[in-house]
Design goal:
Length: 261
C-alpha cells in the first residue's frame, strides 16, 4: 500500500489530455476553464456614485447649492456642475462632469425645492472611480479554475458569455466483490450492500461529472478482464472499489497490469 500523498502524485502526474469547447455561460457551473478570462471593460465603467445624494464640487461644500439636474442610475448626465451647483444623484449613477464629491442625502439640508446646504461633512468622496476595481485587459480568472457561481458572475460582468472550458471526462464506476449486493436488495448471510459505488458516483457528480455506474463485478478474473478491457476503450477514467489487496480473490491489480494500466 502507498500513502495518500504518493497516490495523489501518481494521479496528478498522469493527467489525461482533454479537448476544449465553448459553452454558454449559464451551462458553465462546475466546468474547468481552459483559457484565461480577461475583462473587456473597466470596472466600474465610469465614475459612479456610491450613495444617494448630491454630486457637487468639494470646494463648494460650505455654500448653498442649486440643484440643476436629477441623475438616476442608467442616465447619462447632460449638465456639467458649475460653481454653486449640484445634481441630485442616485446610487450607481454616473457622476457628472465638474463634480468631484457626492454629498450623502442624509448629510444635506433641503432649503427649497431646488437648493440644499451641507449639514454634515465627511472626507470620503463617495465616488467609485472608473477602473478602480478592474482595468480593461486585466485577467479575471485563470485557466484551470473550476467555475463556481461567483465566477460566473465575474464572467458575466466581463461579457464572457461563451467561456472556453475543458470537455467533461468520461468516467466509469466499478465495484468488485462477491460479498456485495445493490442497495435495493436486502443483504443475505455473508453479504453487504454496495455503498462505495453510490459514493464514488456521487463524488463525480459533485464535480459536475455524470459518471456511468457499471455495477458490481464478482471476484472472477475473466469477468473482470472482460469488463475492464471494454471500459478502457470507452472511458478516460475508471474508479474501482474492492479487490485491490493481496488476497486470493483480489484480482484487480493483476488485471490492471495485464491491461497495461
Amino acid at each position: 500500500m502507498i500513502s495518500f500523498e504518493e497516490a495523489l502524485d501518481v494521479i496528478t502526474s498522469s493527467r489525461i489530455p482533454s479537448a476544449m469547447e465553448e459553452i454558454p455561460l449559464v451551462r458553465a457551473l462546475n466546468r474547468v476553464l481552459a483559457q484565461d478570462v480577461l475583462s473587456d471593460v473597466d470596472m466600474p465603467p465610469y465614475d459612479k456614485s456610491a450613495m444617494d445624494g448630491f454630486a457637487c464640487r468639494k470646494e463648494d461644500i460650505d455654500n448653498e447649492l442649486l440643484i440643476v439636474e436629477e441623475i438616476p442610475a442608467g442616465k447619462v448626465p447632460v449638465k456639467s456642475i458649475a460653481p454653486g451647483q449640484c445634481a441630485r444623484i442616485m446610487t450607481g449613477a454616473m457622476v457628472p462632469e465638474g463634480a468631484d464629491y457626492v454629498l450623502m442625502k442624509e448629510h444635506a439640508a433641503l432649503l427649497t425645492y431646488d437648493s440644499i446646504k451641507c449639514s454634515r461633512y465627511s472626507e470620503n468622496t463617495n465616488i467609485c472611480y472608473r477602473g478602480e476595481d478592474i482595468k480593461s485587459g486585466d485577467k479575471l480568472l485563470g485557466a484551470g479554475t473550476r467555475l463556481l457561481p461567483a465566477h460566473l458572475a465575474i464572467m458575466a460582468a466581463a461579457g464572457c458569455i461563451r467561456p472556453t472550458v475543458f470537455t467533461i471526462p468520461r468516467v466509469a464506476v466499478i465495484s468488485t466483490g462477491n460479498e456485495l449486493v445493490e442497495p435495493d436488495k436486502k443483504p443475505g448471510s455473508g453479504k453487504i450492500r454496495n455503498s462505495n459505488g453510490i459514493q464514488l458516483t456521487a463524488q463525480a457528480m459533485h464535480f459536475g461529472i455524470y459518471a456511468d455506474y457499471l455495477g458490481i463485478i464478482p471476484d472472477n478474473k475473466e469477468k473482470l478482464m472482460e469488463v475492464m478491457s471494454s471500459s478502457l476503450k470507452k472511458y478516460q477514467v475508471i474508479l474501482i472499489s474492492g479487490g485491490v489487496s493481496v488476497g486470493d480473490y483480489d484480482f484487480v491489480p493483476a488485471v490492471l497490469q495485464k491491461l497495461n494500466v
